[in-house]
Amino acid sequence: MNAVRSPISVHGKRVVLTGAAGFLGTHMARALIEQGATLILLDMLPKKEALTHFKKKGIAIEETEYHECDITDPDALKLSAAAIEKNHGGIDVLINNAAFNPKVEGSRSGATFLEYPLDKWESELRVNLTGTMLVSRTMRSLMGRGASIINIASIYGVVAPDQRIYREGFEKPAVYGASKAGVISLTRHLGSLWGKDGIRVNAVVYGGFENEQDPDFVERYSERVPLGRMARGEEATGIIVFLASDAASYATGGTFTIDGGWTAW
């Protein structure tokens, strides 16, 4: 008797992952490789540095296609898309993960809303929101019916930051939440627009992940969460595998919240 294959599978799916060498991207890459996906990585890091980074994390990407690419550069994206089409014929999944997110230990200078430099505001919007748009429309021609786009958003695209959890002198920038709210809106727009073509577009709203932050910050954040802690990196991956798989074949234009209950209060 042949074994019944679970629909929650990305085995053999051609997956493009942006921001691959970042904190979340690294965890996603590990999970997708372990699940048997054909992974195509995009990041601004030179390939040699990326190889070193993944090797330190115990992830072998020597046989994985890697593109050094700035997602805000339309010409660079077109070159990557052309190479992907040549090498793979198309893609099944696009994960728009690349983003700029300032550390909570950021400097006092220029951090407040009243002082925030306009050039920083515009450059961060360009990465987080415009970059997501550019990648989506550039890779659109590589997708057929059943393809899935997963946009990475944040709780701060849904609710405002609780500034009380940050250290004195640091203010979580408004541009981050504004850009992630834009990503959620773009997700709904594309889900509605491309539904007729059988292409699904969903957003994942993540809460905070523990990533070598100051212990006092971790404690303050955790006190604010119903589950009583920050997320672990590997907890980012289950929803990604689900949305990339055929098990999510009727999900589009949605937001899936993974935040330990932060936004449930």
Description:
By secondary structure, this protein is of the alpha/beta class. It has one domain: NAD(P)-binding Rossmann-like Domain (Rossmann fold, 3-Layer(aba) Sandwich), CATH 3.40.50.720. Helix content is 37%, strand content 17%. It has helices at residues 23-34, 47-56, 74-88, 118-139, 174-194, 215-223, 237-244; strands at residues 14-18, 38-43, 65-68, 91-96, 143-154, 200-206, 255-258.
Q: Descriptors for this entry?
A:
globular; 37% helix; alpha/beta; 265 residues; seven-stranded parallel beta sheet; 7 helices
Can you give me a brief rundown of this structure?
This protein is an alpha/beta fold.
The gross shape turns out to be globular
The percent range for strand residues is: 15-25%
Largest beta-sheet characterization = 7 strands, parallel
- CATH topology title: Rossmann fold
What Rg is obtained from the alpha carbons, in whole angstroms?
18 Å
Fourth-level CATH superfamily: NAD(P)-binding Rossmann-like Domain
- Could you give the distance between the termini? 49 Å
Number of helices: 7
H-E order: EHEHEHEHEHEHHE
CATH architecture: 3-Layer(aba) Sandwich
Q: Describe the strand arrangement of the main beta sheet, using strand numbers.
A: 3-2-1-4-5-6-7
Q: Helix share of residues?
A: 25-40%
Residue stretches low in confidence (pLDDT < 50, at least 5 long) are none
Oligomer description: single chain
Mean model confidence by pLDDT: 94
CATH top level is Alpha Beta
Question: Secondary-structure blueprint of this entry?
Answer:
Blueprint: E1 14-18, H1 23-34, E2 38-43, H2 47-56, E3 65-68, H3 74-88, E4 91-96, H4 118-139, E5 143-154, H5 174-194, E6 200-206, H6 215-223, H7 237-244, E7 255-258
Parallel strand pairs: 1-2, 1-4, 2-3, 4-5, 5-6, 6-7
Helix pairs in contact: 1-7, 3-4, 4-5
